[in-house]
Specification:
single chain, mainly alpha, Clc chloride channel, about 0% strand, transmembrane
Length: about 400
């Protein structure tokens, strides 16, 4: 490549990175402000939970009437990164934004990562309509959009960049993709926090024990539990999705019936702890002992909500599940409660998404370097312990290592 061609190529990608970072960061800022409003309004007006069935029908009808392939969500982005068959529609951005805000407003249990990733990916893919992109360039644009959405919604640019590169489980890392992805993630994060002033929740591990062999050994059984919890979350979501699809042929009725059952559960249990993101409960998990069943309740309610057809992400509910499970395990495992909550938060996330590097980096960005080895150990073991499962049905798990594969194949 001549110097002039290199210069033109660099200018071209600087423009792409700036556009994708600005779009994805701004979309996340709008989304987070809207989500905060919806959460506060619901908490101050709990009667609105009774409208969850109506809200579910509205979301279901809207996607049924206008969604088309947008209904595939994150799986559509994965499919396009793998195969590149269809352009990601721009309509995905407003639809998933509105659908997620309504889900949280009326009391569904969901997250925000999926929404931010879908917005980032769909906005980024519009560049393929404006510029003449090769398949390789379009693939990288999509990865940058995913990274920008993830980084800006959590305030973790390193984790966001690696998520864009890691979640497709491609063992062959294309080094030419690294710089654009990292730049997009950092720009999107700056746009969300610096330009628009939208902040993020702070979690803190208040006590990190000494780095001894015994303390590291105690992480192993906890991380196995985190991996199995991630597997349970993923399998439960797929189970409810298939159940609703097989049982109810008309899509808008699925979230209507699901919303009716969730509202009934809230009325009977007289508890709203497991609705929405559950961020206050996650913060509590780092500070004080909580009921042991919290992680099961959040897993069940979130997988049911998403399986019924409501919109939102899975990662913040995975944070909830991991932090509360770590909190519960601290009763039996002699490690500090806040550390157990921290390694659980990233461990369950790693097991459910098959992204151990991303989750380790996220742990470092959220909690600092001091707990780094505990976090990394939890993420890697949970990733392996979760087996061939993922919250993303289109994720290519054939490239994931299988424990005891040879023995199983022989049998």
């Amino acid at each position: 490549m001549t110097f002039s061609k290199f210069l033109n190529h660099s200018k071209r990608w600087i423009l792409f990175v700036l556009i994708v970072g600005l779009f994805s960061g701004s979309a996340s800022a709008i989304f987070l402000v809207s989500l905060d409003w919806a959460t506060q309004y619901r908490e101050q007006n709990l009667w609105i939970i009774a409208l969850l069935p109506a809200g579910g029908f509205l979301i279901g009808w809207f996607y049924y009437k206008y969604g088309k392939i947008s209904v595939l969500g994150n799986n559509l982005l994965l499919q396009e990164i793998y195969e590149q068959k269809n352009p990601v529609p721009l309509r995905m951005t407003p639809m998933v934004l509105l659908g997620t805000v309504l889900t949280h407003l009326f009391g569904g249990s969901a997250g925000r990562e999926g929404t931010a990733v879908q917005m980032g990916g769909s906005l980024a893919d519009q560049l393929s309509k404006w510029f003449d992109l090769s398949k390789k360039e379009r693939r990288l644009i999509l990865i940058c959009g995913v990274a920008g959405g993830f980084a800006s919604v959590f305030g973790t640019p390193l984790a966001g960049a690696f998520f864009g590169l890691e979640w497709m489980l491609d063992r062959k890392l294309n080094w030419s993709s690294v710089l654009p992805t990292f730049l997009t993630a950092f720009i999107a994060d700056w746009v969300c926090q610096g330009l628009w002033g939208v902040g993020h929740t702070v979690y803190e591990i208040s006590e990190v024990p000494s780095h001894t062999f015994i303390n590291f050994l105690w992480v192993i059984p906890a991380a196995i539990a985190f991996g199995l919890s991630g597997k349970l979350f993923a399998e439960s979501t797929h189970f409810f999705s298939k159940l609703f699809s097989k049982s109810i042929s008309y899509p808008p009725l699925r979230p209507l019936i699901g919303g009716l059952l969730i509202a009934t559960f809230v009325w009977i249990s007289d508890s709203t702890e497991y609705l929405g993101l559950g961020v206050p409960r996650i913060v509590e998990a780092f500070e004080t002992p909580l009921p042991w069943y919290d992680f099961l309740a959040k897993t069940g309610l979130t997988s049911f909500t998403l399986g019924a057809g409501f919109k939102g992400g899975e990662v913040t509910p995975l944070f909830f599940t991991g932090a509360t499970l770590g909190n519960a395990l601290s009763t039996w495992i002699p490690l500090p409660l806040s550390l157990m909550a921290g390694i659980g938060l990233v461990g369950v996330f790693s097991g459910a998404t098959n992204t151990p590097v991303t989750c380790t980096l996220m742990g470092l960005e959220l909690f600092g370097m001091e707990a780094g080895f505990f976090l990394a150990l939890s993420c890697v073991i949970a990733y392996l312990a979760s087996g061939q499962s993922s919250i993303y049905s289109s994720q290519d798990l054939s490239k994931k290592p299988r424990i005891f594969r040879r023995n199983r194949d022989k049998n």
